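A student in our group prepared the protein record below, which I am reviewing. I have pasted the whole thing underneath without changing anything:
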Amino acid sequence: MRKSLVSVLSCCALMLALGLAGCGGNASPSTLAQSGGDKPADTSVEDAAKAEYDRASALFGEGKFYSAKQAFEKSAYGDWEQRAAACVQVMPETGELFHDPDMASDSMILEFVVNEEDANKGCYISVFTKDNKLAETLFIKGGGTVQTWLPGGEYSVKDSIGTEWYGENEQFGPNGYYETMVFDEVEGAPNLTVLEDGYQYTVTINGTRGVGQTVGSTEGSWDNR
């Protein structure tokens, strides 16, 4: 994917073609085995299903909604279908989700633009310092623009795109698309870009080819998001 960093730096991106598959499960209900008319039922299957259901509930409470969904489907216990469906979260509106208070500043503007006509897609963006400390996270629902302020410095940027949102912990699940932007500005650290005080920088995702300085990307994975 190509992006565009406008001002002192700018970059443009190729359109993403995402084949995002739904993540439904086909778990079958648990059965309770009984051996003999007067003998007590074997509860081992039901106990295992309930234990998995309880594990799913705990994952849900931790905000690990995709993992909870998988566990509910595996348990096939009680109201697992409703609980699994509730694991898919409502996408946030376009804006900033998190900003490290230690990174508060009015010296440099960083703007992200997503050109996307599908309102069912979302783009989650995370910005890190050169020491890999999370500076901020942002979300763009469908197409749109979000702007934030940061102090000048060296930053790396990751983004993910998908249609089913599972919260910031697990983003779009394993069926989302994950990548890290490659700027090749800092020797030995191709993912870092230098953003100077006093400037505004605009990163355009799915932008028009040929506008600004091209920025590459390396495809990532959900496990390394």
Notes: Confidence is low (pLDDT under 50) at residues 6-36.
